[in-house]
Each structure stands twice: as structure tokens, then as C-alpha cells.
Amino acid sequence: HAMRAGFDGVQIHAANGYLIDQFLRDGSNLREDDYGGSPENRIRFLREVVEAVAGEIGADRTGVRLSPHGEVQGVDDSEPASVFVPAASLLSDLGIAFLEVRHEIGPADKHDTRAAIRAAFKQTLILNSGYDFSTAQVALDAGEADAIAFGRAFIANPDLPARFAKGLPLNAGDMKTWYGRGARGYTDYPASA
After folding, report:
1. Positions marked active-site
2. Per-residue DSSP letter, 72
């Protein structure tokens, strides 16, 4: 449907505690069949979904989003590198266009998988979450990623690229309004002058 609607491609959301992420993480995947237990088994559902989508629209038009760091919506993993690094390698082998990794590392997080995922995934790697202009540039200059995606900053700053280019301050987002209905919190933030 996305391709018929004129989209360039699709991103499979395999992150943030949603269905595919629940299969990936040992804190939520308690299955005892071919989709549970070992990291290879927990990656199986992701592989099947990506193969099905790429089979329809092409791997070069398929992206995936993962979130290996920390608990999200009650979903966590005791050893994220054991599943997310092999998942990144598999996705690289499948030839998908890009991998976006939600990277929110807290000071107590001992499971930073960014470097291992960067080494395992050979195509375009995008990092997301918690970046501002300067930290994004540092990450790009260090080769940690090929691009940095901004989601929350765009909600509160509809003119984010212009603000970055001009060095202007950013509007603070009001997260309490992000999941409601209507314009409040989505289309009512002021643009820069």
C-alpha cells in the first residue's frame, strides 16, 4: 500500500516494546518453541517479517528500527548484545537500505551496543534519541553513524533544520500532549522568526 501511495520505502518498527521487539527480548519472550529461547530463535520473527516486506518492495526500499537499550513499555533484555548484534548482522546480510537504532543510554547502562552494531551493519546506520545539534555532529564525525534522526525535537520545532542552521534555541516539547488527539502538542509550536 505504501508503495502504491507513492512512498519511497517503508520502515519496519521492531523497537520500543512493540510486537517484534517483544520477540527479540528475553524479558518478554518466554516462548519455548522455534521463536523463543536462543537469540537465533528470538530473531526468527524479525527475519521473517523483513524477508516478507523486502520480498514485496525490495530490500533497498526497506528499513528497520531497533531499540536495544533499556526497558521500554515493560520490555527489556538481560544481554542486548547477544541478540541485537546478530540481528544487525542478519539485517546487513539481507541488504536492507538502513537500520535505525534508538539509542538512549543512561549513566548506569552497561549494555551500550552502538559500536558492535556499527561493526555488524554495513549499510546506512542511523542513530536516534537524545541528540542535539552538537552531540549529533560529534557522533557523525566519530563515525558512530551515517545519520542522526530527530523525532521529538521535530514535534516541538517544525523548523528544526533552520534552527540548527542558524544556531537558534529550540522549543521544549510537552510530552503530556504527544499522544492525544488534535493539534495541541503537534502543530501548535511556534516557528522561529
Report:
1. 18
2. B
